[in-house]
């Protein structure tokens, strides 16, 4: 290529300067976003409260922990999940989740909704969250999404259904009926064709929660999630995806979920998972049609609770409503 010294050369230099400014601005945006998340996390003080609902098949239910995931599948997608924990244990957690998300045209925007029903002992909580994301293309096959979650939570407590240590306490004579509490969260989600990573805080607000540890209401602890996964193409028929979810809660032990899934012939998913010092799980999934995927997980408790329950069951259905006939490899997240 021959450049005119007074014309093409200056045009080329000007383009290089613009690209450099664009890259610098982008890196500054990432840095500021990370700083905001870290500052908010480190500023929280130790408190008491229950942890948010947990999932064994978190790798197929990502928007429940990171709002940046909204719209990342490039199709209108619906995920329904039901979890029955510690079967046979009185007052054990039960959770049902419905997630719907989709991109908005080619604007880089994504929108999603989470509906959650969570029961634990005498408490029942309903979540309604709206997730909004904005995705920036960082290369031909890589994207960074900034997510924001806005929502409300309804808290109800019926003390006649729970066990408490001091029945004469005035707290246990006053039930809570559908107390409305706000939710505000944020997250970053970076993904390519074969790996992803994200950090998020589902709720910055220190609102009231039921705590099974102290069997009373308390201020909610700040939750900080880190997720990551990588897909290896072992052959034309088999893909392997290890994944990790780390949950940091102020004043509580670190929670780490490790999983390994194998996708066989784009149809059958077989995997195992381990939650540190809590449970070991088996995972099975089947791609029924191009649009419908079903999954099942069984958790065997390894903590002290193992003597009082017969395990945990979790079922997930994923339906890509407007799935387009395009190639996307791997089809694993």
Q: Helical segment tally?
A: 1
**Structural shape:** globular
Uncertain stretches: 30-50
Determine the strand fraction and express it as a percent band.
over 45%
Please identify the oligomeric state. single chain
What is the spatial order of strands in the main beta sheet?
1-2-3-4-5-6-7-10-12-13-14-15-16-17
What CATH first level would be assigned? Mainly Beta
Largest sheet, in brief, is: 14 strands, antiparallel, barrel
Q: Tell me the span between the first and last alpha carbons.
A: 42 Å
Number of strands: 17
Integer-rounded radius of gyration: 22 Å
Question: What structural class results from the helix and strand content?
Answer: mainly beta
CATH topology: Porin
Succession of helices and strands: HEEEEEEEEEEEEEEEEE
């Amino acid at each position: 290529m021959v450049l005119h010294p007074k014309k093409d050369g200056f045009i080329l230099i000007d383009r290089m300067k613009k690209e450099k400014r664009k890259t610098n601005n982008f890196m500054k945006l990432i840095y500021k976003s990370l700083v905001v998340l870290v500052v908010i996390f480190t500023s929280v003080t130790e408190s008491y409260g229950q942890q948010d609902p947990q999932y064994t098949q978190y790798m197929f239910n990502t928007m429940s922990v990171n709002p940046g995931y909204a719209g990342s599948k490039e199709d209108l997608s619906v995920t329904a999940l039901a979890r029955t924990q510690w079967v046979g244990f009185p007052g054990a957690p039960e959770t049902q989740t419905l997630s719907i998300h989709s991109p908005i045209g080619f604007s880089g925007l994504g929108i999603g909704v989470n509906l959650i029903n969570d029961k634990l002992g005498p408490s029942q909580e309903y979540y309604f969250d709206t997730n909004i994301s904005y995705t920036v293309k960082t290369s031909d096959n890589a994207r960074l999404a900034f997510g924001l979650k806005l929502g409300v939570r309804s808290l109800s407590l019926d003390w006649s259904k729970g066990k408490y240590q001091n029945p004469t306490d005035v707290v246990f004579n006053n039930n809570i009926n559908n107390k409305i509490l706000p939710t505000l969260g944020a997250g970053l989600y970076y993904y390519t064709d074969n790996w992803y990573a994200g950090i998020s805080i589902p709720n910055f607000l220190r609102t009231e929660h039921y705590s099974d540890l102290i069997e009373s209401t308390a201020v909610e602890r700040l939750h900080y999630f880190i997720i990551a996964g990588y897909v290896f193409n072992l052959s034309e028929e088999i893909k392997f995806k290890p994944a990790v979810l780390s949950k940091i809660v102020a004043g509580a032990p670190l929670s780490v979920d490790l999983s390994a899934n194998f996708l066989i012939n784009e149809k059958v998913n077989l995997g195992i998972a381990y939650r540190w010092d809590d449970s070991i799980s088996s995972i099975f999934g089947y791609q029924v049609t191009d649009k419908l995927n079903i999954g099942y997980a069984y958790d065997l408790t390894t903590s002290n609770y193992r003597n009082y329950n017969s395990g945990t069951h979790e079922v997930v259905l994923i339906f890509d409503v407007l799935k387009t006939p395009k190639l996307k490899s791997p089809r694993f997240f």
